[in-house]
Q: What sequence folds into this?
């Protein structure tokens, strides 16, 4: 929605406003995200020590990576097929998310919209992500791992369908109000469809698989994803810059979306199978067989 500022500000004024807002947010974070006072820590510790049902007692077994050093944890990650599947899947989804970078240009060139209105129209992508992630977080916790395979598989299939319809609309060559409305709705559906698979499984997997090294695991996965997104920016920009290049651009997204659906569905299946094996063999530590 910040794109609407272009209706009253210049580009320079918009960047200046964003800088001021960033400084205000940084000041609030510095003020609020502080270590608790020593007195408060001391008052919490005795109560925790007297509690016989503390978190340490509830954990039946230590995490397999608890005693591993950083280098050993990285070796554990790269030997796991699930790590590579989630990394490639999130990388493909990151490429799809890069569409939002090109959306204002796409809408401006296709429907002859002013930059401010093109930015406002493209915000439906972020709105779809917001609705999906907010509602998906509640639904994700209530579904079994087996149900997640079908739920996220269906969600990503809808993403493929929305891109196909976008390409069909582009083939028609019409730029009327009806076509623009349908395009905006499809953009909303696209953002709604890909965001749960992009955000939630990777976060949950990183915590359960990475243990105390979950931050390292998230960093590795995100690094691979950003490399894929960066590579697409070069390729996608060159393709879109050609005559009639937006149709080829969307075709690349369609192929990427199909790959993301296959990879993420395979990852979810392997994760489901691993959880079943863990239930059948609760005493078997994952680090004994890291490639499971």
A:
């Amino acid at each position: 929605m910040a794109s609407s500022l272009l209706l009253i500000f210049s580009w320079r004024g918009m960047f200046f406003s964003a800088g001021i807002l960033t400084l205000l947010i940084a000041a609030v974070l510095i003020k609020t995200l502080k270590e608790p006072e020593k007195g408060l820590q001391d008052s919490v510790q005795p109560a925790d020590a007297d509690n016989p049902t503390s978190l340490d007692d509830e954990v039946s077994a230590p995490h397999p990576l608890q005693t591993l050093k950083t280098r050993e944890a990285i070796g554990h990650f790269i030997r796991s097929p699930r790590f590579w599947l989630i990394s490639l899947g999130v990388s493909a989804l990151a490429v799809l998310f890069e569409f939002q970078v090109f959306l204002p240009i796409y809408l401006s060139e296709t429907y002859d919209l002013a930059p401010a209105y093109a930015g406002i129209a493209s915000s439906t992508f972020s709105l779809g992500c917001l609705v999906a992630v907010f509602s998906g977080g509640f639904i994700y916790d209530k579904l079994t791992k087996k149900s997640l395979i079908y739920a996220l598989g269906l969600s990503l299939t809808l993403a493929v369908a929305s891109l196909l319809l976008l390409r069909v609309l582009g083939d028609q060559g019409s730029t009327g109000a009806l076509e623009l409305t349908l395009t905006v709705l499809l953009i909303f559906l696209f953002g709604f469809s890909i965001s749960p698979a992009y955000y939630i499984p990777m976060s949950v997997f990183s915590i359960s698989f990475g243990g105390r090294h979950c931050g390292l695991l998230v960093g590795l996965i995100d690094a691979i994803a950003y490399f894929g997104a960066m590579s697409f920016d070069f390729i996608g920009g060159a393709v879109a810059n050609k005559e009639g290049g937006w149709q080829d651009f969307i075709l690349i997204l369609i192929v990427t979306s199909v790959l993301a659906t296959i990879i993420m569905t395979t990852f979810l299946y392997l994760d489901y199978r691993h959880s079943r094996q863990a239930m059948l063999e609760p005493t078997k530590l994952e680090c004994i067989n890291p490639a499971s």
